[in-house]
Amino acid sequence: MLFFVARRLLYLVPVLIAVSVLTFVIASLLPGDLAYVILGDQATPENIAALRHDMGLDQPIWLRYLGWLWHILQGDFGRSFRTGQTVLQAVSERIPVSFELMILAELIGLAIGVPLAIACAAKAGSAFDRFMTGSAFGMLSVPTFLSAILLIYLFAVELRLLPATGYVPFTEDPVANLRFMVLPALTLGLAEWPGIMRVLRSDMIAALQEDYIALAKAKGLKPSRILFVHALKPSSLTLVTITGINIGRLIGGAVIVESIFALPGIGRLLVGAIYTRDLIILQGVVLLVAAGFVIMNFIVDMLYALLDPRIRHGHA
Amino acid sequence: MSGALLSVENVMVDLPTPRGNLRAVDHVDLAVGAGRTLGIVGESGCGKTMLSRAILQLLPKKAKLSGRVMFDGQDLTGLSAEKLRKLRGRSLAVVFQDPMTSLNPVLTIGTQLIETIQEHLELDLAQARQRSIELLAAVGIPAPEQRLAQYPHQLSGGMRQRVAIAVALSCEPQLLIADEPTTALDVTIQAQILDLLAREQQRRHMAMIIITHDLGVVAGRTDEVAVMYAGRVVERAPTPALFKRMRMPYTEALLAALPKLDVAPHTPLPAISGRPPDPTRPLKGCSFSPRCRYSAGRCTTEKPQLSPAETQEHVYACFHPIAAGAGA
Asked: What is the dihedral of CA B214, B50, B305, B22, to 10 degrees?
């Protein structure tokens, strides 16, 4: 097992290097010279040339990349030329918001999706199953900006139960924090459950056809044990995968939802950086988010091994 | 037939298919006494597995069952799901064909044994564990204690089938149904598994049904043999009587299809030509008539019924039974 973990960790190195190259190249390809952005359109060509030289922008791209990477390896992701804030400061300020949103959204998605999937698989083909599968398909096609607005209308405008926008850190006032988080998390969770439900349902229906389920029945096991232990465990691999992908995606912030509900998360940081051409912040944040995504996938791989002994022992 | 542990009475299984109704099991009567062994023989698709599922009441949801399955004095077809569940694994156990797929790949051997024991017997975890170790040792698995923590994929096919047998034996069932228990295994392992089943059957004095396509498997290991073809029992006899003088041409053909060791190299294997009839299009006459070399006259227009040979125990359904001295 230790060998398995070590090998997977080793795989991460080339992936992370590739991610850093791509991030750097894409940010460099964006139109607009950084020196020009900083100095504004009133700057003289001499000033711009001087600043470009100071920032090393006149060097070849591979040299600039190596310099950037060298600093990152020392923990220096650069700093915003606008606010003076370092990338790490900006990200660590925003990440708790996006992280909390991501956790809550996934919990809501799983809490709705998993029980529905199990219920549908147990009664596959029934009216309930067909209704829920249809509903999931319908929900899948509702964009988050629409459900966000509908939820705001219902809970904030009509019922006046929850605030529509705003944010209070959890450490300041947990109750107020959760009240602000409910609607955005619900919006994302409502978008997550249909995928979770459909994947788990079809995997479980397939598992329920297996010989070992027939044997479990022939052993006289309780229906609940057959469903939750014998069928759910071998069916949960794809569920783990899509949950991992969802989480990875939400690490980068939910740009639309964070914007609608005015949450100061990573998504809004990125959008802001793009608007203000804050390339250093943009590069740094994209790299961190991509690294988070890769690490999330590593965790998913580890969970696979935990769930399926055949992967652990290198059989599959 | 009265006093039998299990008696299958006039059982029919119908499966709706897109091509029409499929009668998988057709008017089958069978009985097994306590401690006795019955072999059910027939080629693939003849309804043997459906019959075993009908006995266990584990037919596909859409299947329709009629007739009675009397087990230990009660009709299984009328029992509630909960009562059936208490019987399955406890009094009625089964070993499936393919040990590669019949054990859950993500649960340890120990879990799969212990859960069965704890479901039916009042034992705590330590006792159930101890019993599991004893069972694994009894079915010939070395280092049984270490096996409990292992997963099915870490064991060979033969070992997995031993585990499946241990699971089946775990609650001292009265009847064990072994559905093609050796078909998926290497030839060298087959005899070992069959001997193991026979030994445990004797020791525990349980009744056993061995389902197989191989007459060689039932010879010498069963008290009685029922030969099935196209959903029906076409010949049934005490094993020695059957092998001494079989009446049904299909039984003879099955026996002839067994590979023999004493023939010259490159001799073609005598196969039964043709295929079993399409079960959604039942024939008017004898189902075997299109493939039967004795077929003549009313064979294609009238269904032969089971009738006794020289003893009441030996019955066959054929208009042109093999005469004494002829055939195999």
From this structure: -120
CB contact under 8 A, B167 and A210: no
Nearest CB partner across the interface for A220, out of B86, B103, B105: B86
d(CA B1, CA B30): 8
| DSSP summary character for residue A86 | B
Is residue A119 a contact partner of residue A133, using CB atoms and an 8 Å limit? no
Distances from the Cα of A55 to the Cαs of A50, A60, A135, A275, in angstroms? 9, 12, 55, 21
Domains and CATH numbers, chain B: 6-101+174-259+269-316 (3.40.50.300)
**For residues B70 and B29, is the Cβ–Cβ distance under 8 A?**
no
* A107 token code pair: 């919990």
Q: Distance between CA B80 and CA B282 in Å, rounded? A: 33
| Residue B270 pLDDT > 80 | no
Q: What is the pTM of this model?
A: 0.82
Cβ neighbours of A307 in B, within 8 Å: 106
CA distance A209 to A52: 66
Task: Considering only residues B47 and A41, tell me which one the structure prediction assigns the higher pLDDT.
Answer: B47
Q: Using a CB–CB cutoff of 8 Å, tell me whether B264 touches chain A.
A: no
Q: State the Cα–Cα distance between residues A145 and A264, nearest whole angstrom.
A: 17
Q: Which amino acid is at A260?
A: I
pLDDT of residue A253: 66
- The strand ranges marked E within chain B are 6-17, 20-32, 37-41, 64-71, 74-75, 92-95, 175-179, 207-212, 224-229, 232-238, 307-308, 315-316
Encoded amino acid at A174, one letter: P
Residue tagged 């040990």 (tokens) = B99
- pLDDT single digits (tens) A250-265: 877 688 899 899 899 9
pLDDT at A247: 85
Task: Please state whether B237 falls in left (phi above 0), alpha (psi between -120 and 50) or beta.
Answer: beta
CA distance B109 to chain A (A): 12
In this structure, what token pair is assigned to residue B205?
């004095």
CA-nearest residue of chain B to A315? Answer: B153
- Chain B residues with CB inside 8 Å of A211's CB? 96, 98, 101-102
For residues A9 and B95, what is the distance between their CA atoms, to the nearest angstrom?
43
CA dist B144 → B69, B115, B130, B140, B163 (Å): 37, 17, 10, 9, 10
Quote the DSSP letter at residue B220.
T
In B46-156, DSSP assigns E strands to 64-71, 74-75, 92-95
Q: Which residue has the tokens 């804050």?
A: A278
- Please indicate whether residue A235 or residue B309 has the higher confidence score (pLDDT): A235
Mean pLDDT for the stretch of residues A142-153: 91
pLDDT at B1: 44
CA B199 to chain centre: 17
Three-class DSSP category at B253? helix
Distance of CA B292 to the CA centre of its chain: 25
Q: What is the DSSP string of B148-163?
A: TT--GGGS-HHHHHHH
Query: Is residue B284 within 8 Å of residue B303, measured between CB atoms?
Result: yes
- Check CB contact under 8 Å for B58 and A217: yes
Q: From residue B92, how far is each of A28, B56, B207 by CA, in Å?
A: 72, 7, 10
Angstrom distances, CA of residue A70 to CA of A26, A60, A76, A148: 18, 16, 9, 42
Query: Are residues B102 and A233, on separate chains, in Cβ contact within 8 Å?
Result: no
